[in-house]
Recover the amino acids of this structure.
């Protein structure tokens, strides 16, 4: 008997081609798992009612097309984060303010997946408007970590990561502005990848920080992440910041020492105070494994990297407050009436947005306000330039930069909700790739025992812009 719920995309594709099961049977297996687990895990906000119709469509193609014409995502059941638009379906960024809102077009990534014949199982839970690192900021209750339901799955793509980890989806899409794909992937023991800024179109992704946002895959294997990434990457006229990934696939040799790939480790950053001892032990063991596999491990400086977190928490709210101005109760979703138009805005936004979203709108408008613009936003923009130059210089001498994905394993539900700063610190290793615009991949690196539970950990690899292929190759070697 084939266990349909633990397959990878590659294996499922091979089985579908040889007719071992149909796309409908595959989809049924995932629906059954969702039925069993979603009530307790709360990974999906909605399971679509036409999943089997979509799967039957895929079966038709499987029957009628030649093998060479069949894309590897045909009939593959995917979970989609609730901030990625699928035409004609509800989408809400896990916010009350988008109550009743129906997407009027497909995100470009979705259009590409439709073209490939993928099956969409449903939309997954997330921190409201992708603001958070635990999925506790959802207006629809937290998602639980499948490895220990008293803990968070990470966030903001916590629903997508939990769905994949709990075999409720074969793979998923998330979005990553400061770590929202990689951090939950790490907390849930699966693979997560943030593409180079511009490698995947942002058209149809509900915007958070537009200069940082990317859609990325959450999968069971590095190979699957590569398949999903290749399916959604490419220039799109609907997103002027998207680019054809021209250097993708061309493995550069700039950092190589005698033909070997060099992995840089910014030790003063990764081994700083406050990083969990078990995380460091696991990270050091991972580096030793990479060295045994033939990689050159080199200590590097990356001087401004520690400034990434404060830079992110100025740029991101500035952009988010601007992006969220459009939710005024007139054009989208929720409408609450006040005395006059301004009253409508107050009533709608006051009722529709949760606490964290309101906090970031306030932070964002503050750092952009006339008297403070230069002191905060202006300096953060300058710091971003410095961080980028640091990365560029470093990538002259190394091919990949490695860090732990997160400073701790998954924390308890409620543990950090009272202290936003504590929560923000969890992003210390991930935000830097968004600031620098470089691709980053989180791969499971083992686990740590906490009480009776084994909690997954992840290692993060960052690469040069456009060099996803290097990350995939290092990640696959590491996972093997
Ligand atoms: N945890 C980060 C934040 O709260 C990252 C969010 C994201 O990547 N969408 O901003």
């Amino acid at each position: 008997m084939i266990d349909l719920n633990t397959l990878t995309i590659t294996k499922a594709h091979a089985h579908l081609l040889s007719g071992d099961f149909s796309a409908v049977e595959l989809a049924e297996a995932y629906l059954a798992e969702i039925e069993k687990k979603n009530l307790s895990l709360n990974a999906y906000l909605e399971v679509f009612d036409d999943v089997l119709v979509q799967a039957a469509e895929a079966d038709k193609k499987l029957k009628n097309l030649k093998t060479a014409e069949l894309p590897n995502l045909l009939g593959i059941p995917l979970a989609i984060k609730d901030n990625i638009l699928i035409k004609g379906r509800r989408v809400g960024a896990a916010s009350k303010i988008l109550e009743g809102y129906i997407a009027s077009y497909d995100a470009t990534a979705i259009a590409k997946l439709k073209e490939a014949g993928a099956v969409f199982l449903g939309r997954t839970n997330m921190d409201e408007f992708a603001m958070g690192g635990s999925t506790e900021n959802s207006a629809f209750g937290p998602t639980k970590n499948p490895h220990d339901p008293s803990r968070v799955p990470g966030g903001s793509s916590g629903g997508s990561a939990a769905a994949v980890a709990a075999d409720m989806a074969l793979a998923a899409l998330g979005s990553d502005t400061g770590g929202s794909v990689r951090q939950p992937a790490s907390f849930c023991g699966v693979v997560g990848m943030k593409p180079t800024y511009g490698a995947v179109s942002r058209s149809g992704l509900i915007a958070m920080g537009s200069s940082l946002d990317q859609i990325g895959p959450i999968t069971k294997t590095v190979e699957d992440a590569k398949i999903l990434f290749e399916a959604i990457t490419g220039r799109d006229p609907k997103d002027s910041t998207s680019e054809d990934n021209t250097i993708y696939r061309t493995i550069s040799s700039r950092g190589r020492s005698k033909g070997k790939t060099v992995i840089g480790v910014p030790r003063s950053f990764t081994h700083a105070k406050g990083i969990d001892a078990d995380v460091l032990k696991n990270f050091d063991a991972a580096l030793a494994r990479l060295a045994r596999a033939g990689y050159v491990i080199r200590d590097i400086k990356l001087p401004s990297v520690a400034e990434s977190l404060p830079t992110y928490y100025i740029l991101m709210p500035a952009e988010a407050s601007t992006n969220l101005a459009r939710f005024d109760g007139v054009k989208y979703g929720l409408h609450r009436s006040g005395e006059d138009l301004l009253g409508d805005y107050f009533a709608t936004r006051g009722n529709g947005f949760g606490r964290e979203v309101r906090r970031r709108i306030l932070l964002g408008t503050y750092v952009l306000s006339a008297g403070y613009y230069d002191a905060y936003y202006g300096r953060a923009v300058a710091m971003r330039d410095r961080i980028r130059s640091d990365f560029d210089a470093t990538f002259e001498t190394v091919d990949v930069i490695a860090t732990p994905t997160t400073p701790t394993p998954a924390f308890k539900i409620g543990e950090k909700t009272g202290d936003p700063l504590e929560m923000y610190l969890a992003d210390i290793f991930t935000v830097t790739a968004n600031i620098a615009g470089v691709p980053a991949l989180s791969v499971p690196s083992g686990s740590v025992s906490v009480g009776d539970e084994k909690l997954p950990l992840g290692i993060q690899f960052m690469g040069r812009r456009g060099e996803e292929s290097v990350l995939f190759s290092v990640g696959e070697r590491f996972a093997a």
